[in-house]
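To the team - S-adenosylmethionine complex, inputs and output below.
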Amino acid sequence: MNVTAYDAIFSSIIGHEYDTLKLICPAATEMSRLVGEAVKIYSTSTKSLQIVELGGGTGITTLAMLSARPNLHVLSIDNEPVMQDQAKKHLQQWIADGHLNFCSDDALTALQNLPENSADIIASAYTLHNFLISYREQVIKEIYRVLKPNGQFINGDRYALNDTRQHTRAVQDEISQYFKVLIPLDRSKVLEQWIVHLFNDESQDHIMRESVALQQLHDFGFSDIKISDRINVNALVKAKKP
Ligand SMILES: C[S@@+](CC[C@H](N)C(=O)[O-])C[C@H]1O[C@@H](n2cnc3c(N)ncnc32)[C@H](O)[C@@H]1O
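Output:
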């Protein structure tokens, strides 16, 4: 396994109560929907699309993609069994119909094991921001290698605002929202874990700042790099391998 300084947060209470994210951050569900939309409009070809998903989690983004168009196959990668087992349970029919397979390696190892020019789309939601910056850099490089020419990278994720003061205010609003939603539900333990996790996301080792992330895609050779649908600290990024 690659050295990821593995953050076991998704094996803890957050993994078991991942549905609370929908309550405290409705934008997360919206980003998965947008990833599905992006898959839908990727091309007008009726040829079967090979999609690689990084950090499939409980299957929310996976389902958005599987429902987007009939002719596709998703290889969903996640190295946290607590999360992936939920996706396997939720998406049994898609597995049975041959549209979905799983890989339990970490994202970098899984990508390194895939042939170059083999995927039409590499998609993800709320996964890359969890990576250490150095690990994320290697992942982006591998995404480029594995994509076919004209292939697309699609990521709905936390992209920190370039204006750092505005970003801090947005994160403060997020924390207020966590309390507003979870305290009346008497979920103080999961509230504590989401805040602990937020410190990870915001740390200098992890933060995925918009300008840096887009420049990195450019540096690795991507074209048509677009950021859209920003909701506070969340946004959709698309980029093409020429
Ligand atoms: C916040 S969840 C997102 C799940 C789903 N895409 C969604 O939007 O609900 C992030 C997922 O990425 C997985 N993950 C984190 N680091 C990973 C890595 N290095 N390799 C593979 N999966 C990873 C976690 O286990 C978790 O299931």
